[in-house]
Amino acid sequence: MNPSDTASAVAATTSGSALSRRGVLAGLAAGLVALPAVDAPVHAAPRRPAPAGAVLSGGGGHGSAHLRGADIAVTAGRRKEGRFGVMFPKLSGFAPEDALLEDLAHRMIDRTPPLSDVSLSNDGFDNPDMPAGFVYLGQFIDHDMTLDLTPLSQQQVDPKGLTNFDTPYFDLGSVYGRGPAADPQLYDPADPRRMRIGSTPDGLADLPRRADGTAMIGDHRNDENLIVCQLHLAFLHLHNRFVDSGASFEEARRLTRWHFQWLIVHDFLPHVVGRPLVESMLRTDRRGAVTVDRRFYRPGNPHRPMMPIEYSMGAYRFGHSMVRAEYEMHDEVTIPFFGVPGHDLRGSRPIPAIARADWNYFFEIPGMSDPDDRNMARLIDTKLALPLSELPPTVVKHADGAILNLAQRNLLRGKRLGLPAGQDVARAMGVTPIPNDRLGLTESGWNGRAPLWFYVLKEAELLGGRTLGPVGGRIVAEVILGVLALDRSSFLNAPTGWTPGSPSFACGDLLRMAGVVQEGVGTGEDELPEAEGLESEPTEDEHAEDEHADGGIDEG
User: Fold this and answer.
1) How big is the CA angle at 36 (ends 384 and 127), to the nearest 5 degrees?
2) CATH class of 3-21+73-514
3) Which of 6, 180, 288, 315 could form a disulfide with 475 if both were Cys (CB 3.0 to 4.6 A apart)?
4) Domain boundaries defined on the chain
5) Pairing of strands 126-131, 376-378
6) In this structure, are residues 458 and 439 in contact, taking their beta carbons and an 8 Å threshold?
7) Using one digit for the tens of pLDDT, what is the confidence trace for 283-296?
8) Which stretches within 50-172 are classed as H helix?
9) Which residues does 298 contact at the CB level (< 8 Å), separation at least 6?
10) HEC assignment per residue over 8-62
11) Tens of pLDDT along 488-518?
């Protein structure tokens, strides 16, 4: 089946009639009444000194897992490259006293408890330009980039990750694993061209799950909360829709990947770094070939590019400041992010009906009226929502010495992995550094420098917090666009150029295409929207590594 035939088969359109998703707030839905109130003590952040052997590992989510090879700067040297590397090898690591980092971390917590309804959000932390779905798309992107499927035998001979067995390509390894032959549990046993989709006890679509409730997917981190879990489910539906329209497995996988990559470049990055920066970095020649202006991200091995620690352990963690304390999952049902077990948004369990996502509350959906209280991301700033001040046991093991404050974990990890100071990175990039007095770091122990992660957040905050600033934005854009440019099978390197049909194709269009935004959300029974621009053949190098391990367990 050629791509134009596929386009015709997929282009069954919906009416797209405008729908009002919410009227005047009339009170909480009956289902929400059953949710126990989340008292402040659940998230209270006890101030205790970090022990010398403070535990930063354990658990399976935000700030918890060890990324193999991320400590390359301190174990092998700042000019070494493996799975990870250093973007600015001439800069030394910044190592302030742990007590300073602990105190800063506690100042970074917003003490506002979760709201009973998102419409009550009036504290000035909402980002009017960014629906909250982009926070979880960013988490999904990060997991795809850092997934580590290196076989255990290879990890054992290379425990420090000095050999890059994998790539950080955006190839949806979290969805496809190592392919149908190596990971058959991810595929429909009746038709291995299709992704396996499970169902909840009430018959709604879900990730395929084991008896203990955990998901059978390519990356367990995509099951850590009920929002990213449902985003993962949408990609399973999207692949199956391409197959159902007549595409082969390989073609459906390519189209799903390319639509995902398009969103990264044309929707996600413009929201988080600003469209002008993205457009200034992309250059298209007369043949349609795209090149990326990379001034600082220059991996030594372009075929297996490293992930810079300044990106993965510093700048990209901007998303932690955007997490809300609560989310409205559908009309009049608001649920706390972390709260009473079983009544919050923690995952690793079947998706409860009350937490089924109406995607119009997370993204702009074509043909649908905006709800009057869509979840908006928090501003990119130096304040983290209260639930992140004490991560629950499902995220971080509550062992002796465990640090549960996500800000403290990020700051200490940055120090221990040898991240340079924010001002040093700014100078290396030719950007005028922000002095510590403007950053609010007045203690003498800082010596005029700031941790990179905090610097990136404060830089954005001082500019209004709607997007990253010049240092954080450039690091994030260069690495993401650079990885896409170096991947010969990405849509940027399609031999004749490729688009999904409309230059305005965005997250809402993809969710419509997957069939998960109308009545019966998540069932996959909606009609397909128009899918355009599926005309390009796969590139010559259609992921030679697909059937081999590819990617890495990161920290959410």
Assistant:
1) 30
2) mainly alpha
3) 315
4) 3-21+73-514
5) antiparallel
6) yes
7) 887 776 788 999 99
8) 72-75, 98-107, 133-146, 152-157
9) none
10) HHHCCCCCCCCCCCCCCCCCCCHHHHCCCCCCHHHHCCCCCCCCCCCECCCCCCC
11) 999 999 988 899 988 899 999 999 999 999 6
